[in-house]
Every structure is written in C-alpha cells, then in structure tokens.
Task: structure prediction
Amino acid sequence: MAKIKMTTPIVEMDGDEMTRILWKMIKEHLLEPFIELNTEYYDLGLEHRNETDDQVTVDSANATKKYKVAVKCATITPNAARMTEYDLKEMWKSPNGTIRAILDGTVFRAPIVVKGIEPCVKNWKKPITIARHAYGDVYKGSEMKIPGAGKVELVYTAKDGRETRELVHEFDGAGIVQGMHNVSQSIESFARSCFNYALDIKQDLWFATKDTISKKYDHTFKDIFQDIFDAEYREKFDKAGITYFYTLIDDAVARVMKSEGGYIWACKNYDGDVMSDMVSSAFGSLAMMTSVLVSPDGYYEYEAAHGTVQRHYYKHLEGEETSTNSVATIFAWTGALKKRGELDGNQELMDFADRLEKATLDTIEGGKMTKDLALITTIENPTVLNSEDFIKAIAERL
Ligand code: NAP
Ligand code: MG
Result:
C-alpha cells in the first residue's frame, strides 16, 4: 500500500513522562505505517525546555502561526519537586500558558463518546463541548479583607486624570471585597473563536451569563457576542444550518441536563472551569476527552486534556507493565491530521484520520480496553490490555 502524503507539515510538540512513551508508540504503530508523516518536530520535554531556556516552547508556538496546525503531547508544568527532579535552571512556566499567550484563543474540550462508557446523565447521547474563556474575571482579580467600618469604591482614573467613582459598599463592620476585570479585545476574540469553531464542526453554539444581575459586566459579554454574531456570522450560521442561542446561566444549566447533547457551550472563565469538570466526569473519564486551542486567527493546537500520567510513568521506569489510556492522545493526532487535510484539500489524509478514530472506538466497543475504562464500562468481561497492546489492537483493526 502506498503511504499517504502530506504537502504541509504539522507542528509536532513532544512532551513528558508516560504520554511521551505513548506518543512514540502511536507514531510507530498507528501513523508511520500509513502516512509519510510530515512534521516539524519540537521537543517540549522538560529536559530540552531547560536546555533551551524554554525557547523551544516559544519557537513551537511561532511555528504554529506559520503552519496553522499543531499537535501537542502532555507536558510537565514544573513545581518545586520538579526543580530538584530535573535539576532545573528556573521554574519554567506552563507550556500551555506560554503557547496560549502567543496564539491567543479559546480552549474547546469535548468527551469522546463510545458505546460501553455511558454518561451518568442518561439522556446525553452526543458530546457536549465546553468552550472556556481563558482570560480574566476572578482569575485576574484583586481582593481585600475589610477590617471594619468604612467605604469601598471603584475608581477609574482616565489618562487625562479625570476620575469616575462607583460605590461598592458602606461597611458597618468587617467584610470582604473583590475587584475583577476583563478587556473587550479578549471577549471579542473569545466570541470569534466560538463562532468559528461552531461553523467548523457544524454544531449549535450556546452562551450564557448572569446579565440580568450583572447589568454592565456580564451584559457586555452578551452584547459583544450578539454584535459580532449579527455583523459577521449570522449569514454563515444560516447557511450551515446551525444556531446561536443566548440564555441566562441558570436556564442554560437546567437545559443542559435535559438535553441530548451535540452542541458547544461557551462559558465565561469561572463557569467553564467548574462546568468542564462536571461535564467531563459525567461523561466518564479525562482520558476520553479531546482538547483543542483555537485562535481567532485560525491556528489550531490539538492535545489530550489529561496530564503526563506521572504515576504510571514511575511504574514504567521500574519495569512494571502499565495500562495507560492513549485514546485522547490518538484523537489529538487525528484532530490535527484532519485539520491539515482540510486546509490542504487532502481528502486521503482526512479519511485516514476518520478511520483511525473509528478503529480506536471499535476496539473499545469490541471489548478491548485499558484498565481505567475496564473499571467503568458496561461491557461484560472486557479484555484489559497494557499500554502497547491496546495500541497494537487498534493497529490490527486499522
Ligand atoms: P494526570 O496526568 O492527569 O494523571 C492523574 C491520574 O489520572 C493518573 O494518575 C491516572 O489515575 C489518571 N489518568 C490520567 N490520564 C490517564 C490516562 N491517559 N490513562 C489512564 N489513567 C489516566 O495528572 P498528574 O499525574 O497529577 O500530573 C502529571 C503532570 O502532568 C504534572 O506535572 C502536570 O504539570 C502535568 N499536566 C499537564 C497537562 C498538559 O500538558 N495538558 C495537563 C495537566 C497536567 P491512576 O493513577 O489512578 O491510574
Ligand atoms: Mg477546574
């Protein structure tokens, strides 16, 4: 069989620990036998980040601007323990944070739905994709403990020195206060990322805030989404047969629980943080979750939603067998290959990505899976495979 050719490279960002081991196996068994894999390789493993003073992370993000599509392996975000473990020069920042700061955009997370791993919410038939705004609000807030009686005000000082004040509260006694902000540009790019992604995967977009209570703050989110939708997206949505739907956050939560899924739910930063954990655990497992960063300029970076699975890696280093789930990492690759195929008009590559996804899901539905899934599946007597044998079982089906 002739291998599928790729005209433009994908940016390949290698990573750490157990996911780095899976990465190599996926390439060896599932990709390289079928594709003349064309990637520009960046080693984001912690050792190499340390050697290059983290320049490699910046370079990989800039390469993503050039080629538009990247696939990323999970990476260690250093903490104090990693400083000694890897003898680091500095406590390097989270690579995801660095890449996000360069590319801007929104992270979309969706469960990988497979028969045998049933959502706790019994009417959820299709995935629910959470789009989380990744800037501002309480994550960039400033707070004060108020020791006793006194007045708290918001003060805006314009460039010309003029002040605008707004009373927060006249305190009679002790209390607390919090100030938070967002910037219009970030909300606009969040909106555009969501509209573009909805068009991309042809699903309805829901957005919800508490605009009835927060008449300026949340209402601005609502207004920016609506203005951009009316000016730039309404016609495109009509053509694609999808809708944009705004409602109050409490109404959205109630509707989500009663829905059958199959839409994108755009969330402000805090709502996205909380709701994505609820939705992902209700769907089954973090190892069955795709994650893609979509920039407003049309750059795409695909990854798994989970980390480097450190505990399994240490077992692996001791020569013990592991049963680590590679599905999310496989789907990071298929997402990137499909997007590459779409941008290059390479139908063969897109078809291959679909077949690899199908082979992966069929393997699980056929009763062969890793231990994490075997523990929660409704399939009787599943065969538990180790990390490599699971990938080989997929290769066999493929
Ligand atoms: P983790 O990699 O998400 O794993 C936590 C636990 O979840 C594992 O010990 C395992 O449970 C289970 N798990 C996660 N993924 C699995 C998979 N694919 N197959 C089977 N089980 C899976 O988190 P961590 O081990 O606490 O973090 C390790 C490193 O990941 C940290 O240094 C952190 O900085 C980094 N991280 C990176 C990213 C990223 O690059 N996107 C995201 C999050 C964390 P059992 O042990 O019970 O089997
Ligand atoms: Mg969270």
Summary: Residues 273, 277 surround magnesium ion (ligand 2) (CB under 6 Å). The first helix runs from residue 17 to 31. The chain is about 45% helix and 25% strand.
